[in-house]
Amino acid sequence: MNTLYVVGLGPGGEQFLTGQAREALEKAQVLCGYTVYVDLVAPMFPEKETYTSPMKKELDRCRWAMETAQNGKDVALVCSGDAGVYGMAGLLLQLSPQYPGVEIQVVAGVTAALSGGAVLGAPLGHDFCVISLSDLLTPWEVIEKRLRCAAWGDFCLCLYNPSSHKRADYLAKACDILLAEGKSPDTVCGWVRNIGREGQSAQVLSLKELRDAKLDMFTTVFIGSSTTQEISGRMVTPRGYEKKCEW
Predict the structure, then answer these.
(1) CA 138/CA 142 separation, integer angstroms
(2) Residue 9 pLDDT > 80, yes or no?
(3) SS (H, E, C) 165-199
(4) Crossing angle of helices 140-152 and 170-180, rounded to 10°
């Protein structure tokens, strides 16, 4: 039985690959994925066959990977971040009953919530939600409901896909929803762009300021809870140890 590894690459730099991810890439005969992601790792394995496809071709890409594995090659389908967090692991497993001769191994990676959070400090030190603002696959009504529930629960939020050319106002809309549900305009927030890649940049700012920020799909946004603080320029959400220990 041939193996299809679905591999989370982390934010992109070679130093962010887990040992398990590197081992899977080494074992695979073919590297497959969205063009940008394959380009991140192909130079590390110049001898390997590659197959790339553009955005919005996810189903075709997954079928190609499954068929290639079923026909006798070990394949690594690569994803940014973690393969199971807005990645291809779920789709491959949905397709798997059609390809009984393929063993799928899901290889975890460092998702943007974690790598971006590390850049900002410790914004996710307590309970948090991860929500994508992209409505390509999820209706905006559902996204809005999730934002309202997160605000009601006073969760920290990590927002993926905050804006694009076609969705230039979605981040502002999300901020307006959170403000309407009781989030303070002074809530500590942050964003990180191009996490772990050339040109990485980041900023800590208030929710009021975040509303008017011009960000893009390469940016991950963090919105604090009522307890989140800015400490020496870092974003920190306390877990509550100071309540249990002598400070």
Answers:
(1) 7
(2) yes
(3) CCCCCHHHHHHHHHHHCCCCCCCEEEEEECCCCCC
(4) 40
- CATH 3.40.1010.10 in the chain is located at 2-107
Name the token pair of 74: 């070990």
- Quote the tokens at residue 38: 């394959």
- Is residue 156 pLDDT above 90, yes or no? yes
All CATH 3.30.950.10 domain ranges of the chain, comma separated, are: 112-236
The correct answer on CATH 3.50.50.60 for the domain covering 2-107 is no
- 65's enclosing H/E stretch is helix 58-70
Query: Which CATH code for domain 112-236?
Result: 3.30.950.10
pLDDT digit string, tens, across residues 10-61? 997 888 999 999 999 999 999 999 999 999 899 999 999 999 988 888 999 9
pLDDT higher than threshold 80 for residue 223: yes
